């Protein structure tokens, strides 16, 4: 176990972070430039969206790409300052086999963040760090204020577009990285955002 005082956070490495037992509470953290950053508990809408998307994409992968897996809240190490950064997306997909002792998601092809109004800046900061990973083909950001998403897809030359594709309402979401396609609204099943009035 690594004993870490709050005053020493600025130099924490990923190895130290993975062995750190937190602050003694149930608070979850990610590591940002050597400093643990607390992650607020998710709203119920966020939680429903996360579990629904994991189920839909997980079932799709089981049928179409059984070697690939969706992972909830995986640790991801961006290429920039990788020894001092461990970001935690809501979901990630990898097609690399699971091995004993893995603590970070190997070769993610798709990363998904769920955007809450209270963490918008931190979420987009994470998104831009994900673009440094050569295996990542798509990054999906789902809204919680309405039925909508923003999708970044790596282009043929390896670059990323200047701005994401926006998908809303009944529009079809296509994730080329995992061969998934469905109306965006399906991902929001069970949330108040799509519930029909009584």
Explained architecture:
- The N and C termini lie far apart (53 Å).
- The chain has helices at 14-19, 44-64, 120-130, 184-187; strands spanning 28-32, 35-39, 69-72, 91-94, 108-115, 138-143, 148-153, 165-168, 172-175, 180-183.
- The strands form 3 sheets. It has a 6-stranded mixed beta sheet, with helices on both faces. A two-stranded antiparallel sheet has the order 1-2.
- It has one domain (42-187): tt1808, chain A (Alpha-Beta Complex), CATH 3.90.1570.
- The longest helix is centred in the first third of the chain and has 21 residues, at 44-64.
- It is built from 4 helices and 10 strands; from the N terminus they run αββαβββαβββββα.
- The protein is globular and about 45 Å long.
- Helix content is 21%, strand content 25%.
- The protein is an alpha+beta fold and 198 residues long.
- 27% of the residues are buried.
